[in-house]
Amino acid sequence: MKSLHTETLGQGETIVLVHGWAMHSGIWRDFALKLAEHYQVILVDLPGHGQSEAIECFDLEHISCEIIKVVPDRPCCWLGWSLGATIVLDINQRFPERTSALVLLAGNPHFTQTENWPGMSCEFLQAFKSSIDKNGDSALLRFLLLQLQGTSEAKALGIKLKKSFLQYKIPLKKTLLDGLDILRDADLRPALSAAKCPVTFILGVKDGLVPVSLGKTLHKMRPNSYLNNIEDAGHVPFLSHPQQVINVIQKVMN
Predict the structure, then answer these.
(1) Is residue 168 a contact partner of residue 51, using CB atoms and an 8 Å limit?
(2) Residue 228: which of 218, 43, 193 has the closest Cα?
(3) What topology does CATH give the domain 6-253?
(4) Of the residues 25, 52, 82, 164, which is catalytic?
(5) Where are the domains of the chain?
(6) Which residue, among 6, 84, 96, has the nearest Cα to 42 in the 3D structure?
(7) Of 40, 8, 37, 39, which is closest to residue 25 (Cα–Cα)?
(8) Which residue of 65, 83, 108, 201 has the fewest CB atoms within a 10 Å radius of its CB?
(9) 102-118 confidence digits (pLDDT tens)
């Protein structure tokens, strides 16, 4: 297939940014420019998103193997947001020699809720998948607003998020549904426990998709990890609180 679309900003130690479900690397634009004042930042469009061509099998194995081809062949810090957090955990599991640190931003190694694990209910996820299948565009726009629900600047951020989202063609329905299947089925908790590199978690206190209560559970799983809760942030802290997220990253990179 055609190589995935990437963009490189700045110089210095390398941080690879991996976006979330249905989005593209343009969502990082303002945040990435600020981050690039300190580091080399590589933006990647997932297969079938933004300017990258789709792949037949949109699953973790194929996604990770395609991404690793287009980034420098050396250890990098991987920052994954939402679904991107799942993907960077998988990349670290398959290619640990290519990882110097992991930053999981509004991410969850096991997205769905169980009796002893905070997360999104399987029923909600299945209902959302059905709405995408039946009426994808309107369901996607509702999803954008859900990511900002409860935050003080939800309206302004919603306009910005929608504008960025519509910059490129919406991914194919199959790609979207396959991405939801990853969120429903993937369990990267063993990979998180086994990771040899430093791990940092950044959660939004008002996140309606990845509950902040997950932080305590994650910290128990990785007692030596770095946990950060950002007040008044929803599911997109890099948009609502970019400097706070950058401050955390700088501590990781020092």
Answers:
(1) yes
(2) 218
(3) Rossmann fold (3.40.50)
(4) 82
(5) 6-253
(6) 6
(7) 8
(8) 65
(9) 999 999 999 999 988 99
Q: What is the number of other CB atoms lying within 10 angstroms of the CB of residue 166?
A: 13
Task: For residue 82, indicate whether it is catalytic.
Answer: yes
Active-site residue flag, 187? no
- The sign of the torsion formed by the CA atoms of 149, 154, 155, 157 equals negative
137 is catalytic: no
pLDDT, one tens digit for every residue, the chain (254 residues): 458 999 999 999 999 999 999 999 999 999 999 999 999 999 999 999 999 999 999 999 999 999 999 999 999 999 999 999 999 999 999 999 999 999 999 999 999 999 889 999 989 888 899 999 887 778 888 888 888 877 888 888 888 888 888 899 999 999 999 999 999 999 999 999 999 999 999 999 999 999 999 999 998 899 999 999 999 999 999 999 999 999 999 999 98
Instruction: Name the active-site residue from 225, 235, 240, 241.
Output: 235
Structure tokens given for 34: 């600020």
Residue 207 structure tokens:
């996140």
Look at residues 89, 83, 21 and name the one whose alpha carbon lies nearest to residue 50: 21
* 94 closest CA partner among 62, 72, 46, 57: 62
For the record, the structure tokens of 194 come out as: 């086994």
